[in-house]
């Protein structure tokens, strides 16, 4: 694989938009950080610097998903746009494996790295590093399902670092296994899709849009993910009016409830016809005209418009608003120093000495936070383990009736006695799909319903503690220098330090767990439903990881069944189902106990992340406030000439901060317009 030249590509569109965002807001945030640093407001400066870095390092999550052998990996290889530097590829020119048989074994996430790297993330939460050549060789599905079960049943995801041009522009791309390959793999894919900025769904032009594929399309749309539909031109198929009409009526009219075909432009519905193989070959050859002829260029332009005109403005709005809040912190400290410079020396010094016990008490008050989180962690742990046990009990009760209603295709006809392994696999697959669906529903509904009120009570209690700390510090400032939180200054809305701290941690309780815990690394929405939704999904995967024989690979369950079946043709399908139920029930009976420790570990992990983030934020807030008090006490003791110089400096800073805030507010207004 070699470096390629491009015309206006998706990566170029994104890079240009990022440069505009930096011009609109990034420079102002960086200047605010320098001002805070000059004032020795280290914590505020660090937060502004981090905000500028997050704005500059915007990440978009782009997923390719769909049925096996629809051309997902080929399309993704073309979208990656080649590499920024030569990479030795022992198995071919594309990072994603392609072939005549299914190849993608598990979810594969690709981010930018100068040198290729591979991390294997397992369902139980553990991980290991692979050599890049090992990944290219061993990550591909074999022709043997039993061998696939042995190789991949505990692997949730491959995380690849790779010098792809598109990834360098800030796009994290995700290749998925076929959504008809395995029920749990499908759930993992659907969970990833809920966190993506956009999903590309290829369909083969010769086998267009089956009912199951369209049902999956609906699920992804309901989760709020933008879908770009690709008709991957297969064989000798050509894009003509008959094909356009069929796709419109099938997908837009019948599936989405749109009008009937009347020569509309399918691109208006984010539907594109792409010769994926031609696109890949043209991209590798640096043939921009060939890429355009393949149809990939039109898809990239529309995708680029969406990411830069809709997703990037939301990102800009978020970080510019955060910076405005921290600019208010600078203005507060400027006001405190101005008040201190004008205050009576003797009175302020006496007040400072008198306030020392209260300052120490406030510092100690932050130490209460870990205990608060521990109480709610224990409650969440008990409630979730109890609920999971009941969910498994309900599955065991409902499974016989469900399996009775399932027809085993290999159980029909005179040759069914020769289809023993296939019948066992079909029964096992039905059990696996039913179990996975029910537990997935539990994670999204019951687990979420249990966690939501717990997190709300936790949030309310934490907010009360933070508010009390902030109010006490504001009162200390008032008693010492007469400074109070200002109502505002022109167009600048100055919020209290308490409100700023609360805004920094609010994401943990109101939906954006990604922003609060991972610094925004989890995509534009982060985990759906906040920490409740993220924890529920994590528990699901962890719990299922310990019950691999039931829900990970149907072939594992089928193999366990075979020894218990007497292979005569008389009522063979009934006996297969009976043995399948007995075998599955034995594993399901142990699942709550096996999963209990996993649930506890996941709960502890999430609460530890939340507690660490909140405690660090609150302690940093207190540290900066206490240091600022010491700073303005020192200022107050200077001679009058020095105080006058300080007052002039503070006036200049106040003016420059106001200008930077005005720039950021303009950026926010532009972002709102999209």
The number of helices is 23
Over the alpha carbons, how many angstroms does the gyration radius reach? 29 Å
Biggest β-sheet: strands ordered side by side in the sheet = 4-3-5-2-6-1-7-8-9
Which stretches are poorly predicted, pLDDT < 50 over at least 5 residues?
A: 1-7, 414-418, 489-495, 509-529
- Describe the largest sheet: 9 strands, mixed
Mean pLDDT: 81
C-alpha end-to-end distance: 37 Å
Notes on the protein architecture:
The chain has 674 residues and is of the alpha/beta class. Helix content is 64%, strand content 8%. The protein is built from 23 helices and nine strands. The protein has helices spanning 10-38, 42-56, 72-79, 132-138, 145-152, 165-168, 183-194, 211-222, 241-255, 276-284, 288-293, 296-342, 345-365, 369-405, 420-444, 446-481, 497-505, 513-518, 530-545, 548-551, 554-562, 572-636, 640-673, and strands spanning 60-64, 107-112, 117-122, 127-130, 155-162, 171-175, 198-204, 226-232, 271-274. A nine-stranded mixed beta sheet has the order 4-3-5-2-6-1-7-8-9. Helix 13 packs antiparallel against helix 16. It is globular and about 100 Å long. 47% of the residues are buried. The model is unreliable at 1-7, 414-418, 489-495 and 509-529 (pLDDT under 50).
Question: Features of this protein?
Answer:
single chain; about 675 residues; 9 strands; globular; disordered N terminus
Short synopsis of the structure:
With 674 residues, the chain is α/β, with parallel strands linked by helices. Helices cover 64% and strands 8% of the residues.
